[in-house]
């Protein structure tokens, strides 16, 4: 049975819960449109304050997940996973509650409309009441919520998040936020009743309250140790989530000291994090070197919107107003930015990170931009080599043949690299080949003379599968054909038009094809693909495969963001190829042409380590 006041009354409404702001918004709009002025001014204030509080939490969320700024100042080094993100999805429920209670207060006390904009006495009174009433009230309420029934049925929800995040501050039960509303409300209500309240006091106190709560839950040590010594009220709260018998206070450790509940590790841990912040921190074992795709997908980063990044990317309406900002950021990154860390996870004690080259897809096809892109990739490889990374895997366009020969450029330029450079195309080929039914006798292949196209053609012809290779270059076709065993060469057939595949139901697309070109495929065709971006699903009488990808093992930890359009826990095959390379401890570089003989070896190694093809899910 659910404990009283533990559930939120609107928890089943989903996004429709925001309609609860409707009466406030309607009253403001009605007054604005049909009356000379907004009579119920506090309805507007309540909406603005809620928006401001939401913005404070969002900005703190962005800061705490901007890993290239905070990675060495994190208190708990673990990552926030999908389960925690889902639990905290409705973290903003308390804003609706506080808005409704504030509106009730406005109805009961209409004199609030007469509050002045500024009254310095109110700030002094409010500070005194906060220290003498709110702080001890919160401290003792918090301690009681850690006992028996109250913890089991209420406060355990908040503590289900061991890795704190600014949204964790709002993740609690209905009863707890009712009490928190009292804690916040007493200093403000008392100051107003004493005749020294002001509008700026309400805005300032609520904003400061949320700001400090987010700081305490951010899992990032923001305050330098020297300042912490002088202003000890800027204490840890993150430790309270791992050592629950300590650090109960709101903002002031005074009451923890009086109650003998100060975590003795707080001071030493703070000093250690502050002193180590300038160091490199833990060295990743594996790095996936990604790049931007387009402006809208750039907003899929965890430090933009955490919840949006935790689901596969798709274009959303709310992104459109942000496109000018994204465009400006793109220009700034093009001019000044270097490769940066965007996400991480742990796999069997190994730290895996994703770094991003600050370039977007279209830039890779600008001849004057190629040198700069290669320079950024080279800098990332050399940095990985310098700090001790074991394997660095190149994403999609970062290993473009025309750009750097699939990574060959860097390996030949720096023959003494300790870090292994991997393009991951061997596993990409393996994934595509293992999606093709064993009884298929003929396939149609576009992008046939590319690295992947060549490897797929050579592998299939060994299986006695007839491969219709679409290419206008007889020279390149014959070069690939000569690589095949003599008794298999006749299985490779050059074709120059899409019409040649009008009776073939297995298309492997390695070069983007238009809807018109797709129209030559017979009904029931399945389009396998390794082209970026994926082709348009134009034919309703055909099926379309996703880009080659694999699901990470079940024991992955701290993974909380999706890789572009991939499902949760799924990564591109080139990413997975680097993971396998690192887990196997292979010491060779995987660059340039794909070694066809290693396709089955890499595939078996991937399965051995628990990576699974997405199609088998």
From TrEMBL:
Fatty acid hydroxylase domain span: 128-261
GO molecular function, one term: oxidoreductase activity
Biological process terms in GO annotation: lipid biosynthetic process
Any Pfam family hit: FA_hydroxylase
Domain Very-long-chain aldehyde decarbonylase CER1-like C-terminal stretches: 443-613
Source taxon at top rank: Eukaryota
Signal peptide: none
Topological type in the membrane: Multi-pass membrane protein
Gene3D superfamilies assigned to the protein according to its UniProt record, in alphabetical order: NAD(P)-binding Rossmann-like Domain
Residue intervals passing through the bilayer: 15-34, 41-60, 94-112, 124-141, 177-203, 317-336
GO cellular component: membrane
Assigned keywords, A-Z: Membrane, Transmembrane, Transmembrane helix
Keyword Endoplasmic reticulum: no
Claim: Transmembrane is one of the keywords in the record: yes
Compartment(s) of residence: Membrane
Annotated family: Belongs to the sterol desaturase family.
The name this protein goes by in its record: Fatty acid hydroxylase domain-containing protein
Annotated organism of origin: Gossypium darwinii
């Amino acid at each position: 049975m659910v404990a009283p006041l533990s559930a939120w009354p609107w928890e089943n409404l989903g996004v429709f819960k925001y309609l609860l702001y409707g009466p406030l918004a309607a009253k403001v709009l009605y007054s604005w449109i049909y009356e000379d002025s907004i009579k119920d001014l506090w309805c507007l204030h309540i909406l603005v304050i809620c928006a401001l509080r939401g913005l404070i939490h969002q900005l703190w969320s962005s800061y705490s997940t901007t890993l290239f700024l905070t990675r060495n100042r994190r208190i708990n080094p673990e990552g926030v996973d999908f389960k925690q993100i889902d639990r905290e999805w409705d973290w903003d429920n308390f804003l609706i509650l506080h808005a409704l209670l504030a509106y009730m207060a406005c109805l009961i006390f209409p004199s609030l409309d007469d509050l002045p904009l500024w009254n310095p006495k109110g700030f002094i009174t409010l500070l005194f009441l906060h220290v003498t009433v709110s702080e001890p009230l919160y401290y003792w309420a918090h301690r009681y919520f850690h006992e028996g029934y109250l913890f089991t049925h209420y406060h355990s929800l908040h503590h289900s998040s061991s890795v704190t995040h600014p949204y964790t501050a709002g993740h609690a039960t209905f009863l707890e936020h009712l009490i928190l509303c009292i804690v916040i409300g007493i200093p403000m209500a008392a100051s107003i009743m004493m005749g020294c309240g002001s509008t700026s006091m309400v805005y300032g106190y609520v904003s400061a309250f949320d700001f400090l709560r987010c700081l305490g839950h951010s899992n990032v040590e923001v305050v330098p140790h020297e300042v912490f010594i002088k202003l000890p009220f800027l204490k840890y709260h993150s430790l309270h989530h791992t050592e629950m018998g300590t650090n109960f206070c709101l903002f002031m450790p005074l009451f923890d000291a009086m109650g003998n509940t100060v975590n003795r590790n707080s001071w030493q841990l703070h000093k250690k994090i502050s002193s180590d912040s300038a160091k490199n921190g833990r060295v990743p074992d594996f790095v996936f070197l990604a790049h931007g795709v387009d402006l809208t997908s750039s907003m899929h980063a965890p430090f933009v919107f955490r919840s949006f990044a935790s689901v596969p990317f798709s274009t959303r309406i709310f992104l459109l107003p942000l496109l000018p900002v994204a465009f400006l950021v793109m220009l700034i990154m093009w001019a000044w930015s270097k490769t940066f860390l965007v996400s991480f996870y742990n796999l069997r004690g190994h730290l895996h990170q994703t770094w991003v080259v600050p370039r977007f897809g279209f830039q890779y096809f600008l001849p004057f931009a190629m040198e700069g892109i290669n320079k950024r990739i080279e800098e990332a490889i050399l940095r990985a080599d310098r700090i001790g990374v074991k394997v660095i895997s190149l994403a999609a366009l970062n290993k473009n043949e025309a750009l750097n020969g699939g990574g060959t450029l860097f390996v030949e330029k720096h023959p003494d690299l300790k870090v292994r450079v991997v393009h991951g195309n061997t596993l990409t080929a393996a994934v595509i080949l293992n999606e093709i039914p064993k009884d298929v006798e003929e396939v149609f292949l576009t992008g046939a003379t590319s690295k992947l196209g060549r490897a797929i053609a050579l592998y299939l012809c060994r299986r006695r599968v007839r491969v219709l290779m679409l290419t206008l270059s007889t020279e390149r076709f014959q070069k690939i054909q000569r690589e095949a065993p003599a008794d298999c060469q006749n299985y490779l057939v050059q074709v120059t038009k899409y019409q040649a595949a009008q009776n073939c139901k297995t298309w492997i697309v390695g070069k983007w094809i238009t809807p018109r070109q797709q129209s030559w495929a017979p009904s029931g065709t399945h389009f396998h693909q390794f082209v970026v971006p994926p082709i348009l699903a134009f034919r309703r009488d055909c099926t379309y495969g996703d880009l080659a990808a694999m699901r990470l093992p079940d024991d992955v930890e701290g993974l909380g963001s999706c890789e572009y359009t991939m499902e949760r826990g799924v990564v591109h095959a080139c990413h997975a190829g680097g993971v396998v390379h690192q887990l196997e401890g292979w010491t060779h570089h995987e660059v340039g042409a794909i070694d066809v003989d290693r396709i089955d070896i890499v595939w078996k190694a991937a399965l051995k380590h628990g990576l699974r093809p997405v199609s088998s899910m």
